[in-house]
Design brief:
Elements (H helix, E strand, L loop, with lengths): L4 E10 L4 E8 L5 E8 L2 E7 L6 E8 L4 E5 L2 E3 L6 H13 L1 E12 L9 E12 L11 E5 L1 H9 L6 H14 L2
Parallel strand pairs: 4-9
Antiparallel strand pairs: 1-2, 2-3, 4-7, 5-6, 5-10, 8-9
Helix pairs in contact: 2-3
Length: 177
């Protein structure tokens, strides 16, 4: 038997956007253990940069954090939707901006210790005004900050969202090249 092989998977919860499984796996030492896995599917996020070099963010209430958070626009992939199409859709829905150019930036597991979600992050530029049309349960404010201001907000705790931190720091490191 291979290390970390799946022995059994039982669905224990099915909700609107997540499913929870209890997976029994075999460890390299031959012992069995159980892992709780949140199944969420794919998502896309976008780091939009305006003509002045500012990053466009959205501020919205996130109930698990019981706080308003500053984030990059993002959302879950619809059934059969390509990640780039999702990023373009979320950009316009949440900010009212349309990207003339969008390119893949990187892919990540936001919470790999308990969730199988894969997040595709894109870099968007050549922006023009479109129409903001948020979901009925979304109330977002659009804010713009320079990359340096955004980095400062990461290190002083004003930006705490993982995808946003990864995106801003990657942009500072390689995105402007």
């Amino acid at each position: 038997m291979e290390p970390y092989s799946l022995i059994e998977s039982k669905e224990t919860y099915r909700g609107k956007i997540i499913t929870v499984n209890m997976d029994t796996i075999m460890l390299p030492n031959g012992e069995r253990t159980v892992r709780e896995i949140v199944r969420r599917g794919g998502a896309a996020a976008v780091l939009p940069v305006d003509a002045n070099g500012n990053i466009i963010f959205v501020r919205q209430y996130r109930h698990p954090a019981r706080a308003f958070t500053l984030e990059l626009p993002a959302g879950m992939l619809d059934e059969g939707e390509e990640p780039e199409a999702c990023a373009r859709r979320e950009l316009e829905e949440e900010t009212g901006m349309v990207a003339g150019e969008i390119r893949p930036f990187f892919k990540m597991y936001p919470t790999i210790g308990l969730c199988d979600e894969t997040l595709h992050l894109f870099l968007a530029s050549d922006l023009r005004q479109g129409t903001q049309h948020t979901d009925p349960d979304e109330f977002v404010e659009v804010e713009r900050y320079s990359p340096e201001e955004a980095a400062a907000m990461i290190f002083d705790g004003r930006i705490m969202d993982g995808k946003t931190i990864a995106g801003v720091l990657a942009y500072l490191y390689i995105g402007r090249k």
